[in-house]
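To: structure subgroup
Subject: Chain for Friday's discussion

All,

I'm putting the inputs and outputs inline so they're searchable in the archive.
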Amino acid sequence: MSHDQIVNVTTGLSALFLSVGALLIVILYIGAGLSSSRHSRLKAWPWYRYISFTLGIVCAAISVIGPIAAQAMSNFTMHMVSHLLLGMLAPVLLVISAPVTLLLRSLPVRHAKVVTSLLRSYPARIINHPIITSLLNIGGLWILYTTSLYSWMHTNLMVHILVHVHIFAAGYIFSASLIYIDPVPHRLSYIYRSIVLIGALAAHGILSKYIYGHPPAGVGVQEAQTGGKLMYYGGDFIDLIIIVLLCYHWYKNTHPNEALA
């Protein structure tokens, strides 16, 4: 499939189907929140989680369909905007919305026990380990921007889809492995997660500087420099959300009587 054909996928009928799918996901989440809130033994689902989930889905959607996605195929700066939305901002917003917690609230007890068993399984423990999620997330970006994979994803639809799925999924599990909002059976210390986060932030910052000086194949110097700076400063802004949440949870755990509810 050619470059132009992939662009058509991001703006044509496929984009319409994805838009409808995104809307249905938001409606399903809101419906589950409202339904579970009617249960007498459960607290009302927080309003900010509805907003966070909706914004997260919107960020993910506009990064793969519509004008941003179409321009990202030929403009590296717009590609980086898409990368920040899909791989960083959308995952953080979705983690804040606590979708797993809402799922457990909404399911019948026997089905919720199955989900809980999966979360406690050894494979889930490995996949949710901060070092593993950092390798999948940051390591995947190093592979994308320092090999021919970046060029390949613009000429092969399946590779294009797989790269975007990986960026989103890796960004989500990375965020979830550092800030414990949903249930995490195998919890690691705040110090451990903080050290891993510092290493991941350093690797992300180094990659952005590498892109600045070594443009990916087919990317002009000016675009690489703009995209590299956007990745560096934009990434820092989004990472700040993770840092604030991690520190707040740490403080709340240490000073439960002083932290906000």
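Points worth raising on Friday:
The chain has a mean pLDDT of 91.
The CA atoms of residues 178 and 193 lie 6 Å apart.

D.
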